[in-house]
Each structure stands twice: as C-alpha cells, then as structure tokens.
Amino acid sequence: MDFIQAIVLAIIEGLTEYLPISSTAHMIFASSYYGIQEDPFVKLFQTAIQFGAILAVVALYWKKFFDFSRLSFYVKLACAVVPALLLGKLFDDMIDEVLGDPIPIAIMLIVGGVILLFIENLFKNPEVFKEEDISIKKAVYIGFWQCLAMMPGTSRSAASIIGGMQQKLTREAAAEFSFFLAVPTMLAVTVYSIVLKKYEVNGLEVKGYEMLTEGDNMKMFLMGNVIAFVVAIVAIKGFIGVIKKYGFKPWGWYRIIAGAALLVYFTTYK
After folding, report:
1. pLDDT value at 148 more than 80
2. Residue ranges making up the domain that contains 36
3. Rounded distance, CA 29 to CA 262, Å?
4. Which residues lie closer than 8 Å to 149 by C-beta, 6 or more apart?
5. Rounded to the nearest 5°, which phi and psi values hold at 214?
6. What are the pLDDT digits (tens) for 69-125?
7. What H or E segment, with its residue span, contains residue 197?
8. Which of 45, 89, 94, 169 would bridge 164 by S-S if both were Cys, CB 3.0 to 4.6 A apart?
9. C-beta neighbour count of 59 within 10 angstroms
C-alpha cells in the first residue's frame, strides 16, 4: 500500500464509519480495486484508523463524554458493548474469512438498503427522545443489535440505529446513541487489532504493533487517523442533518445502488 491508497482508505473510513452504509464494505471494495486486500498491513490499517473516527465523536460530544457526574452514561455504554466484545472474539476467524470475499458483502449492502427504506414504517411512535431516558436494559438490547454488524456489509451504525428504533428511540436519539456506542466498541477493536491479534506475514505470525514499526507503516497509520478524524467530524454533522430532514431512505437507496453496482463489477470483471 502506498500513501495515496492510504489517504483514499482513510477518507472512506471517515466518511462512512458513522453512516448506515458500512465503512468496512467500502474499504474492502477500495482495497480490492487496488489489489491490496490481502496485504496484512492493509487489514490492520483498515481497522486501526477507526481510532481517528472515535476521536471525532469524543470531540463533537466532549461535554457528554467528560461529564463525570453522570455515571449512568458510562454504565450504559459499558453494558451495551459487552455483547460485541464477547461475540466478536468468538467469531473473529469467521469474520476474517468473509472479509476476503466482496460478493456476500455487496449482497448485504443491498439487503440492508431495502431494510432502511422501510425502517420508519416498522418502528413508529417512539417514546425515548434523549440519551438520559435510555435504560440499561434498552442499551444492552441495542448492543446485541450492534452484533449484527459482524457480518461485513451490514454496518455497525445501521444495526445499532435500527436496534435503537426497535427499542422506541427516535431516529435522532438512536443515531446519537449509535455514535456514543461506537467509541468503546471501536476502541476495543482497535486495541485488539494492534496489541493482541496475530497476522501472517511471509509465513510468520506477527502482532499488529510489530507491523507498525516497519518502513513507512507508522507514518501511514498516523496520517490515516488524522484524515479519518477530520472527515468523520464533517460526516457526523451532515448525517444528523440528513436524517432529521429526510430520514433513512436516502441511505437505503444509496446502499441498494452501490451494492448492485459492486455486485455486477465483482461478478463480471473480477
């Protein structure tokens, strides 16, 4: 992977991480287009630059994250992230296998798009309008919904937002709680990918942090996180504005069109 490819992947991560369109799918398609999808460092990079996107949420909602007088906020996030931590470790190898095949990911984009077209007809009459009114029980249920995103192409954001709406949250409240829940979830994934996970490099198993010390990898890692941070701030603000005005239909149609186009591309030209 060169610096231009790293910049493209970082922009994609920042744009798509908090939108219900699957950042993982978009980065896999981009890396497949460049022919670098099997590079172990690319796999690490695509996960590790989520750290920049995490910081974007913390920066935008810093009053919420640093209000230590409200212990319930942290308890809810801690409880909601547990399902993803347990199931993520359990299905890690299976997820890696799917990541190598863009066809099922394109199909999941289309399926998720159809669901988003009708999501607001399924969950009407919301009762929860702000984070303070979300119970721990509802937070845990949303955490289980988030686990659906372990199938690449589903979208962590889409799964947790749908889960929020199923738990009677308004679409705005569901989107914001999805942002909050992303912080511990993606922080855990990033730390795991760098510190604990092993990658096969030239027949040897190495940890993520060992790859970061090679060549220009650290420079690309730092650059990627900075770009993802800046782009994610813009994307989050824009997303909230779109769902307030138009709901989820624009993202549904985007997923269907993008998924269909990518399905044709990877079945015809790859």
Report:
1. yes
2. 3-268
3. 8
4. 22, 155, 156, 157, 158, 159, 160
5. -95, 135
6. 889 999 999 999 999 888 876 666 566 665 567 888 888 899 999 999 988 788 888
7. none
8. 169
9. 13
